[in-house]
Amino acid sequence: MSATEQTPGGSYAPALETPRSPYKRSKGNQTNWELYGWLFMRMSGLALIVLVFGHLFVNLMLGGGIHQVDWGFVAGKWASPFWQVWDLLMLWLAQLHGTNGVRTIINDYAEKDRTRFWLKVALYLATVIVIVVGTLVIFTFDPCAYPEYEGTPAFCFAQ
Questions:
Q1: Please, which contacts does 115-123 make with residues 24 or more away whose CB atoms are closer than 8 Å?
Q2: Domain count, the chain
Q3: Where is this region: Disordered (predicted)?
């Protein structure tokens, strides 16, 4: 195909590749991280819809509604490995989903390479801190830490 083509009106315009032509990478055979990021956003978004609405339904609609949510409720819920994994998946997916979105915004709007670099460093550092601390809280939470609290689950007293 030539560098320019004649249009029906007789003028010349730059030639465009056909829409179905294969994508040509400028740096050899690289992995397409932007495609994987785009796919991750769609899949994690769908998973988050299920996780968040399931979380809200169990916490707010079943039992006593919002009035049941206290220390004892969380302690009883996190005594189950199922709810620990549920909340862990929700934490990790939400954090990574948000991080990928903010990374895209930084790439779009940060004009200088140095600014873009430091914004991403701050973003990734905050992401790691939230994921590590959140994971530690979920798996090291002691439901029996405050036995004097009236909402402490009954299994803390069974010995």
A1: 123/99
A2: 1
A3: 1-27
Region of residue 155 (left: phi > 0; alpha: psi -120 to 50; beta: else): alpha
The sign of the CA dihedral 36, 41, 43, 48 is positive
Work out the pLDDT band at 68, boundaries 50, 70, 90: confident
Burial 54-76 (b: 16+ CB within 10 A, else e): ebeeebeeeeeeeeeeeebbbbb
Residue 94 is assigned to a structural domain of this protein: yes
Does 117 map to a domain? yes
Higher pLDDT among residues 77 and 155, named by residue: 77
Angstrom distance (rounded) from CA 139 to CA 84: 7
Give the separation between CA 58 and CA 51, rounded to whole angstroms.
11
pTM for the model: 0.71
